[in-house]
Amino acid sequence: MAPIWGSIRVLIHIAKEYQKCFKNLINMFTRIGNNLPRCRIYQALFPSHGRLLQAISIVYLDIIHFCVDAKTIFRKLKHSMPRALLKFTWKNFNDEFREKILTKFRDNLTNMEKEVMISHIIKSSRNRVLMHTNKEKREKRRKIKRRNLLLSNLSSLAYVDKHMKERKRRHPGTGTWLTRTNKFQKWISGGSDCL
């Protein structure tokens, strides 16, 4: 912003000698100044959107170009033109400003507004993705917590060791009467669905 305000201060300082032109210049700066606060707000809202920052820079550059062009006219007037030609020269510059510079400024502001919309869409999309990702992470943590809770409720008894110990205590021939019955034999061979 310093180059913009510096350019404006120099131009106002030079133009103060030419009261009619000075009023016109102030009117033009008012038109420009009505749009500058949005540029700062957009820079703060979307600091990482390169295309928007470039569009804002172009708007700032338009202002600097205007100041340079106006300064050039005032310098020429001061050194070479009689005051009678000042009105004519300023009128030409004023017309050029309206047609060329102001139109370009408005076009660049429109482009900046489009970039703001794009930046907003991109930021909203990123926020939705981030919210979805966070939701998935919370769901995953919830499932892990539930699984850990279930696992902690399961018996931590070494069942293999207990099975081997009980197997050694088994008496020979225990349960053989069941395996010798006809119903069991029929079931084991697949001839019956129930035992």
Describe this structure in words.
The chain has 195 residues and is mostly helical. It has one domain. It is built from 8 helices and no strands. It is rod-shaped.
Blueprint of the fold:
Blueprint: H1 2-15, H2 19-33, H3 36-45, H4 50-79, H5 83-153, H6 159-168, H7 176-179, H8 182-188
Give the end-to-end Cα distance, rounded to a whole number of Å: 91 Å
Q: How many strand units?
A: 0
Strand content: under 5%
| Main sheet makeup | none
Low-confidence stretches: none
Instruction: State the order of secondary-structure elements, H for helix, E for strand.
Output: HHHHHHHH
Radius of gyration: 42 Å
Helix tally equals 8
Average pLDDT taken over every residue: 80
What brief labels describe this structure?
195 residues
Please outline what is shown here:
The chain is built from 8 helices and no strands.
